[in-house]
Amino acid sequence: MTTRLPLEHVRIVDLTQAWAGAYATQLLADLGAEVIKIEARRRPDPWRGGFGASRGLPAYPADGPGERPYNRSYLANSVNRGKLGITLDLADARGRELFLGLVREADVVAENFTPRVLGNLGLGYERLREVRPELILLSMPAYGLSGPYSAYPGIGGTVEPMSGNCWLLGEPGGPPQTTGVMYPDAVAGVNGAAAVLTALYRRGQTGRGSHVEVSQQEAMMAMLGEFFARGESHACVPAGNRHHRIAPHGIYRCAENEWLALAVRDDADWRALLAACPELAESAEPRWSTGADRIEQAEALDRWLEAWTVNRDAAEMEALLTAAGVPVARVRRVDEVARCPQLAARSFFVDECHPEVPGRHRTAGIAVRLHETPGRVGRPAPRHGEHSRAVLARYLGISDSEYEALAAAEITGEGPPADQAAMPREEDGA
Amino acid sequence: MNTIAPPRPLDGVLVVELARGLRAAYCGKLLAEQGATVVKVEPLAERAELADGERIWLDAGKQSVVLDWRKESGSGLLRRLIARADVLVEDQEPDALVAAGLTSERLRAENSRLVHTTVTDFGSSGPWARRPATDLIVSALAGMAALNNFAGAAPLREPGDQTSVLAALFGYLGTLTALINRQVTGAGQRVDIAALEAVASVLTPQFLGASYQGVPVGQREPGKEMLWPCKDGWLSLMPNPDRAWQTLIDLFGLEADPADPRFASEPARRRHAPLVRERILPVLAERTRAELFEQLSTMRVVCGMVLRPDELVADPHLAARGSFLRYPLPGAAHGTGALSLPGPGFRLAGEPPAPLSPLTAIEHDIDALLIGAGRHDAQCVYRQEVLR
After folding, report:
1. Would the CB atoms of A197 and B342 count as touching at under 8 Å?
2. Nearest CB to A175 within list B10, B169, B227
């Protein structure tokens, strides 16, 4: 007897693209939801990099873009695992009819268009509810569904400064920075999944659907609540890797271009640090023995520590200080995290095969761990339009000949439409 | 409880929160924001010393019980509370719960509907289950800090304690998923969240990319800077795509001879980044963030203003959306005497969030929660604990 997947009774029609929305539905697919990803017939998900080999988004495997680069982008292939993939032309009345047919069979519709798009297609929440009264609609526009900025376009890298994160990220006295990846997208994705789960629970109790929204700006702002909570929000300034309450706390240069993260939480950690490192004990100033003094002297402490770490092996220091009970870690690059012993022990990683990418590739597994009814990472990410025929047959009874007719009219199909050859050309990607 | 308030999604869900740090407290906050009844249980000696603002941020909407559950009388009382609860959220050391007789197995034997959510740095199993850590350490181990590696400088963690907030969000996902599963099967279960895994999950694309390409992705590339100084601060902008470039020319008179091959296409502009920079900076220096944001966004050129927290509090878009919750600050020594906190990251469409009531001690109402427990017994033990 196998246990159920916790969301196996949930079907999601997924209009999301790129990262934020696709990550929300990935999280739900991992927990067993059936996710039908719908891409526009003529314009694939931007994270596929376009039909031709995109130079703006170098996202292909080491052996290059290949014959069908749109099926080989690591961006699209990462967050779209576990989903079925179809294409529909929603600008066509027949395409919209097919879409509504799928909505009739669905529990959730997810989208991250700018606010007017769905309505302009005649597919707004009210219309969807006519077809499926208990539907849950998830909308994830950059700035929310209302307000003066709601019609403005936004991507992770432009929402981040609008959340306060760029102002706070960076060295004291230095310029603002953006995170190395479009981080607000991922944060919005988590909030999107939370919104859908909340609405599903509510529907389970009341029988009623709902329209839920995630403003990507607000989702990122909520990550920074502690700064607003300080009550003097005008005084919030970037602190680099320093902490407002404890010192030393930072990332220090070591030998061989490595870095060591270290946080001395309290006087006990401080004493443990000195006990483990006699050279530090010798040069430590007695007035640093209390937390209050250390906070005041944070800059001097950082210089003192780095003078010690700069010639030392980061891995050795990590082992030594971890054994002493001090929070410490050599800074890992993403490829090193794939070899993390803790994650391996918890079977966190998934080594997947994709039909158009040679080899097995490691990616992150499921962080939402349920003990009795765990999720599972399902099929690899769909190829463009891969399940169009099967999904339309299964849910809408579309026969093979009907499918051929729809594909000939470019209302559905796989790969680039007949009038767009899959030739490499210079595109800008997303 | 206020019976006149509109129904919230988690009405009727009873949560017991045993928080040592931010992870369980923030997870409790997320549940309280959606209408759950969250009872925060703390031994008197372990009550976190939080500033007023922090207390409101973390614990508004919750109810407080001071109870030393590490002692036998206290743990018995807590067990009875948990036996009536839907959810237990905690971030305690595993030994502490075991020592108090609060193993997951026992709690769930007494309450098969219980969802027991644990939120820790590394998870409740594995070689690092007891490894000392903070947000900085988790960020370093998960590959997050390394992605913020600007030329020559130290890797940077995200501001604040974002790995704990992210872990708490995943705790919310797990708790809700388990509650949904319970709607189908009637049974609760254990939910085990690791901050390290939450951050790794967020970096799913980067992991796969590192495997596809054999090198880490997401490193800083020169010439891809997105932040540009303007008259009163900074603007996030990618000027090279055709639409953006043409708009800068049309709206702001950017000087670029259309015959000049160095500016003729996006790839060309990328190759000549220093020249592009020379052209862009004077255009931006004459204009404020607000002007540029409004004019460019209206032309569908994606950009963003670098805003400070106090500027966000005053922002007209966020005001129109009711995105900030205002709370009076008791005895405020500075500022306006009110606190503005960001609301939840998701909402019912068209319904701005409402402020929550301050953390309420429920010394006299605890009996109401302990249906079936002897009234006298509960009150006696409770008062003893408080006086100790």
Report:
1. no
2. B227
- Chain mean position to CA B177: 18
Global confidence as pTM: 0.95
Task: Using a CB–CB cutoff of 8 Å, tell me whether B121 touches chain A.
Answer: no
| ipTM of this predicted structure | 0.96
State the Cα–Cα distance between residues B222 and B240, nearest whole angstrom: 14
Q: CA–CA separation, A150 vs A143, rounded Å? A: 5
Tokens of B208: 């796969």
- Give A248's Cβ-side CA count (13 Å radius): 24
**Which residues, in sequence order, are CB contacts of A335 under 8 Å at separation 6+?**
B210, B211, B215, B216
Q: How many residues does chain B have?
A: 388
Q: CA angle B171-B209-A251, nearest 5°?
A: 65
- Whether residue A248 is preceded by a cis peptide bond, meaning omega within 30 degrees of 0, is yes
Secondary structure class of B81 (helix, strand, coil) = helix
- What is the arithmetic mean of pLDDT over A353-375? 96
Task: Name A403's Cβ contacts closer than 8 Å, sequence gap at least 6.
Answer: A388, A389, A392, A393, A412
If chain B, 388 residues long, is cut into consecutive pieces of 10 residues, what is the mean pLDDT of each piece?
71 96 97 96 86 92 91 89 96 91 93 98 96 97 91 87 98 98 97 98 94 73 75 95 93 88 91 91 96 97 96 97 91 68 96 91 58 37 37
Residue A160: pLDDT band with limits 50, 70, 90: very high
Chain A CA closest to residue B242: A428
Kindly state the average pLDDT of the residues A173-180. Answer: 90
| A233/B177 touch (CB, cutoff 8 Å), yes or no | no
Q: How far is B214 from chain A (nearest CA, A)?
A: 7
Any chain B CB within 8 A of the CB of A224? yes
HSE-CB at B296 with a 13 A cutoff on CA atoms is 29
User: Between chains, do B159 and A224 touch, taking CB under 8 Å as contact?
Assistant: yes
- Spell out which residues of chain B touch residue A167, defining contact as CB-CB under 8 Å: 306-309
- Phi and psi at B358, nearest 5°, equal -65, 160
List pLDDT tens digits, range B157-207: 999 999 999 999 999 999 999 999 999 999 999 999 999 999 999 999 999
Nearest to B86 by CA among B64, B57, B117: B117
Instruction: Say whether B158 and A143 touch across the interface (CB within 8 A).
Output: no
Strand pairing class (A259-263; A328-330) = antiparallel
Are B241 and A261 in contact (CB < 8 Å)? no
Does B178 reach chain A within 8 Å, measured CB to CB?
Answer: yes
Mutate to test the interface with A, among B211, B270, B341 (most CBs of A within 10 A): B211
User: Is A200 in CB contact (< 8 Å) with chain B?
Assistant: yes
Residue type, position A76, single letter: A
**Residue A58: exposure state from Cβ atoms within 10 A (0-12, 13-18, ≥19):** middle
Q: For chain A, what percent of residues have pLDDT higher than 90?
A: 87
